[in-house]
């Protein structure tokens, strides 16, 4: 259940982050609202990662160092936005998103990981989960547009 919630939040963050990076103009109501949802999804993804120790059962791995860095960079990016340091905000949030994208590639590229296993052995469940994440992201965008 924890891994499912972790992967769901990460997928929603991946989708909303792409929308926010591609969206113009930056700083408008849509960007700020989606950014808030994205930050919550990212913090959940990072914090929940510390309870997942399947690569090295019972202990943390190098991946958790990336989680620590993501927590720090996400926090700096949030602080920068709140204090009007837009260039710093842009850099740290873009970096956090690119880290998420890298983690996603790692999660789907390794055949023994849960995502490829689910897609291969339970394609209906995989498609249902993926569709659910897309629908949540789409609903978030629609809601943020107000």
Structural class: mainly alpha
Number of DSSP strand runs: 0
The major beta sheet can be summarized as:
none
SSE ordering: HHHHHH
Provide keyphrases for this structure.
146 residues, mainly alpha, globular
Q: How does the SSE layout of this entry go?
A:
Blueprint: H1 2-22, H2 29-49, H3 62-82, H4 86-109, H5 114-121, H6 123-145
Helix pairs in contact: 1-2, 1-4, 1-6, 2-3, 2-6, 3-4, 5-6
Describe the protein's architecture and organization.
- The chain has 146 residues and is mainly α.
- The chain has one domain (2-145).
- It is built from 6 helices and no strands.
- The chain has helices at 2-22, 29-49, 62-82, 86-109, 114-121, 123-145.
- Helix 1 (2-22) packs across helix 6 (123-145).
- The longest helix is centred in the last third of the chain and has 24 residues, at 86-109.
- The termini are far apart.
- The model has no long low-confidence stretch (mean pLDDT 88).
Short description:
Helices cover 81% and strands 0% of the residues. The chain is built from six helices and no strands.
């Amino acid at each position: 259940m924890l891994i499912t919630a972790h992967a769901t939040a990460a997928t929603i963050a991946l989708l909303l982050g792409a929308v926010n990076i591609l969206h113009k103009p930056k700083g408008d109501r849509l960007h700020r609202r989606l950014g808030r949802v994205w930050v919550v999804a990212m913090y959940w993804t990072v914090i929940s990662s510390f309870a997942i120790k399947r690569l090295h059962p019972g202990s943390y791995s190098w991946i958790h160092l990336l989680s620590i860095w993501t927590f720090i960079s996400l926090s700096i990016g949030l602080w920068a936005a709140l204090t009007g340091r837009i260039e710093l905000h842009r850099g740290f949030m873009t970096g956090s998103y690119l880290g998420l994208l890298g983690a996603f590639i790692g999660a789907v590229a390794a055949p023994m990981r849960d995502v490829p296993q689910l897609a291969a052995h339970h394609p209906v469940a995989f498609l249902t989960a993926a569709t659910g994440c897309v629908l949540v992201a789409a609903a978030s965008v629609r809601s943020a547009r107000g």
